[in-house]
Amino acid sequence: MTQKPASRIVHINGWPGTGKLTVGRLLAKSVGARLIDNHTLLNPAEALFARGNPLHASLRGQIRREVFDHAVRADPAESFVFTDTLADDADDSATFSWYVDLAAARGADLVAVLLDCAPEENARRLVSPGRSEALKLTDTAKLQQLRANYKLLRGLAEQTVEIDTTELSPEETAARILAHIGV
Fold it and tell me: Is there a smaller number of Cβ atoms within 10 Å at the N or the C end of the chain?
């Protein structure tokens, strides 16, 4: 009798434009997981309120709480792939703890993936067609400011993998992650 593999929570973190969603889609398909990209959680607030409006943060927080509450109660065999852009600061570390708590509550393995690429390549990707329609960041000056003022959150799970996607296709990136997690 074969035993079904344990459920997994894969958290993909990276700057806007590093390939999180594309790689996340490939991973979710490969492991039969549900994909919850950061724009699933962010776009309702983006559609209603400007980022500086307190209601933006409030709605984002409420959506995240509800999604995580329901994910805890999902089929125990279900795996999830999440994408995010989290900085190495107290607020975003607290946000990452939600993933740690979700994995613990589900008895799931947590895999932290950090995607990055060279700043020039990152800026080139940021203006790819379709990003603005998906309410994704397309302002290269804002990206440059983020990269100059923040570091990406890393290394907060037992299983971590960091990948420079500058020279890699999304398929190659996904294959490296799958090899790391033993799929």
Answer: N
Structure tokens at 71: 């994910």
Residues with Cβ within 8 Å of 150's Cβ and at least 6 positions away in sequence, in order, are: 87, 88, 89
Q: How many whole angstroms separate alpha carbon 177 and alpha carbon 124?
A: 24
Q: Considering the entire predicted model, what is its pTM?
A: 0.91
Structure tokens belonging to residue 101: 């708590």
Two tokens, residue 90: 């107290």
Beta strand 159-164 with 109-116: parallel, antiparallel or unpaired? parallel
The answer to whether the CB of 2 falls within 8 A of the CB of 175 is no
170's tokens: 């999304």
Contact 157, 84 (CB under 8 A): no
- Computed over every residue of the chain, the mean pLDDT equals 91
Minimal CA–CA distance to 152: which of 96, 82, 81?
96
- Alpha-helical runs (H) found in 8-167: 20-31, 38-48, 54-73, 90-106, 119-126, 140-149
Instruction: Give residue-wise pLDDT tens across range 98-139.
Output: 999 999 999 999 999 999 999 999 999 888 888 877 778 878
